[in-house]
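It would be a great kindness if you could assist me with a short task in structural biology. A protein sequence and the structure tokens that stand for its backbone fold form the material at issue. I should value your view on which stretches of the chain appear to form regular backbone elements. The record follows directly beneath this note.
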Amino acid sequence: MTNRRQFLKNMVAVSSLSLSSCGWKLANVSSNHTSSAQSDNLQIYTWTQYTDSELLSTFTTQTGIKVLADFYDSNDVMLAKLQAGGAATYSIIYPSDYMVQKMVEKNLLTQINHESLIGLDNLFTQFKNPSYDPENRYSIPFNWGTTGLLYNSEKLENPPEDWEYLWQNQDKLYKRMTLLNDVREVMGATLKMLGYSYNSQNETEVKQAYEKLKILKPAIAAFDTDAWQNQLLAGDLLLAMCYSTDAVNISKENPKFKYVIPSSGSSLWTDTMVIPKTAANLAGSYAWINLILQPDVAAKLSERLNISTPNRAGFEQLPKQIQENTNLFPPESLLAKCERSTPIGEFEEIYERYWTQLLA
């Protein structure tokens, strides 16, 4: 471990350091990117459910680098922190797909040197050249999923099939349902229900979604991304709009909670790994991504963290019951109705204006 740490501190234009025990390498990283004071640490900024002690200890064992993790619960919170000067703190960040585009436009990200990576060929084809980041120039996919509804099947005899269910059962769900604290997800879901795009740039359509949500708002307990989980498990809530990753975790803890992707469609998202331009430990950043790209690591993460791996080779190592879990890996017929959230430029101000009015 000491030799590897010293190597990172003094690394100058080396071709690679192979770590045969797990099959990945550190490659072509100049010492001017990693000061000796910083190379012992790798600071990451991620979603709460995307790491665990086993992953952190594996990385530290293999590299001698200690990982320090901070967490956020929305892309907007993450971006605001970075723009306020927090970018210099982190060497790996986990933005969602549309946020990658926004961060590239704001010149916040380092273009990834693919020659410094091992394992890109392990990805499913659809993740090798995604629309939000052609040729994976700035991001590497970590997890993907959907947004839907998680409900208490013992309390709600008629399960939700579409977003319209919330309005049709507003009295029954009064103050016992939550929506995400995410303008694009909440407005997007309502737009989808109305027959429009998740990414509508028509103010008339967005206003219709706002008016629809205004009708529902009195029955909503909260706009919340994380705290709803304990409330649902405790029986205080009957239903929550959530990400599939969270839904799988809750359903695993108590099978009475069922997840559904609304029939009119929802969002299809990918969370990624990126390297900010101000990364203090560039060598460590590549080492982290290389570890995640390994099939056995990807498979174990999918099992432990209940996430949908974009790693084809990792997927093939998963037990059959996980491969066939439709909450993690939905059928193509459902995915075909889903849309990715995409950057909408200056029109985002329209969404924010209506969102502010809704929350007021």
In short: The longest helix spans residues 203-216. The longest strand covers residues 140-152. The chain has 15 helices and eleven strands.
